[in-house]
Amino acid sequence: MKKIEARANICLLLALVLLLGLGLYIARFVRDGGRWVAYAANRHLYNSQGSLAVGRVLDRDGDVLSWVEDGVRRYYNGSTVRKATLHAVGDPGGNIGTGALTAFANKLSGYNQITGAYHFMGAGNDLYLTLDARYNYIAYEALGGRKGAVGVYNYKTGELLCMVSSPSFDPLDPPAADQLEDPRYEGVYLNRFLSGTFVPGSVFKTITLTAALECIPDVTTRHWTCTGSTQVGGAPVTCPKVHGELDLTGALAHSCNGVFALLAAELGRETLTRYVDRSGLTSTYQVSGIRTAPSRISLENATGHELGWAGVGQHTDLVNPCALMVYMGAVANGGRAAVPQLVLKTVTPIGKAGLRLSPYLTRKTGELIQNDTAQRLSGIMAQAAVEAYGTNRFPNMDLCAKSGTAEVGGGLTPNAWFTGFLRNPDAPYAFVVLVEQGGGGAEVAGTVAARVLDAIVNGY
């Protein structure tokens, strides 16, 4: 009897283990089934060249950017558009991880938990991106073959309207292996907007200014005299030219390194680090499931002089363009912004909204800046933008912006940055432009931003 009882207990235990395993499998099947189906070795979905052979990728206006014809992956009829949207659409070989053909293969496959990846009306779904191919085209042309990134998004809804990374290539004519050693293709498979980090230069001063507004009570009433060189931590912090008498707005408009280095030193390592972390720069965002690269700002062992340079966006500062754009969106939106999204909708072959494993929902960041501080910073940035950049290049735009000219060392030309947001009620957009080794931020990156924003706001 005891033997029977023991064997019954063993059988019961095995049954429980079986049920537990089955439950775990079902949970993973529900969560990961689409990813399993979209595995590149699945020859029902991928052709012999390894290209996804189902599904169409479209922009927000319905322009078809990639489709399948006779089992072959096709692309938009226009080489510049193909290059401008490469890092959003993807290449046939699946080498660009942020491209829809790789990142959203499960959505394109047409997979659902009832019929799998098969449908009686045809294979694959239509995936609509939030991007407008025309804006990408304009941004890519404005970069003019230079390395860099451009991003524009709606900080209320999260929709990315423009996302360009350069260098790029025509997916119908990818570079051969030996061509990748050519400097023109350096980092060509990297999406610089989502996955890169770069020396920020003076665009980082918006973070230092945020901390100063909250932690230095009299900062808005102070005045400084810039002689072109300021002693910070026992060594000079230099400016490109003598700025003379400055208040806080003037210091931002003229991008005075001396003033912001002094503010950073006064704030101290712990305070500045706290505000960097709070800004979201060192976090990662899930852009429709694609993880952004975290910025890297390390002040732990910085001397007083190094801390001064870090406060102006130099030292060892490295910033991700997407995270900086989101911070600008939070400033514009009173402290919190929408998390960027790339997927607008998925449509099945019968024309109805498809089952979304990651549905498009507006998600908000945490509080990246206090509401009252955001209002004060917006006002200073708006006034500084008028003084520094004028209004002629940005017609019909209530512009708040900051440029940056970031020294990268090695005798190389500085990185050019331009970032900010619009306060127009009908144009709630934040933006970032990076031109690697481009030179002056306001002149070079600002010109790129002006062309893209003009197209978005004014339809040009």
- Give the mean pLDDT: 88
Query: What's the tally of helices?
Result: 15
Query: What portion of residues is helical?
Result: 25-40%
Protein structure class: alpha+beta
Shape: globular
Could you tell me the strand content as a percent range? 15-25%
β-strand number: 16
Q: Low-confidence spans: pLDDT under 50, at least 5 residues? A: 33-39, 353-358
Supply database-style keywords.
460 residues; alpha+beta; 5-stranded mixed sheet; 5-stranded antiparallel sheet; globular
Please give a structural write-up.
- There is one protein chain.
- The chain is 36% helix and 17% strand.
- It is globular and about 90 Å long.
- The chain is of the alpha+beta class.
- Helix 6 (133-143) runs antiparallel to helix 15 (441-458), helix 8 (205-215) packs across helix 10 (257-267) and helix 8 crosses helix 11.
- The strands form 5 sheets. A 5-stranded mixed beta sheet has the order 3-2-1-4-13, with no helix packed on it. A 5-stranded antiparallel beta sheet has the order 6-5-16-15-14, sandwiched between helices. A two-stranded antiparallel ribbon has the order 7-10.
- Strand 11 and strand 12 form a beta hairpin.
- It has helices at residues 2-37, 79-84, 86-89, 100-103, 105-108, 133-143, 192-195, 205-215, 248-253, 257-267, 269-278, 304-311, 321-332, 371-389, 441-458, and strands spanning 56-58, 64-69, 72-75, 126-129, 148-154, 160-166, 224-226, 229-232, 235-238, 244-246, 286-287, 290-291, 343-347, 399-406, 415-422, 429-435.
- The protein starts with a helix and ends with a helix.
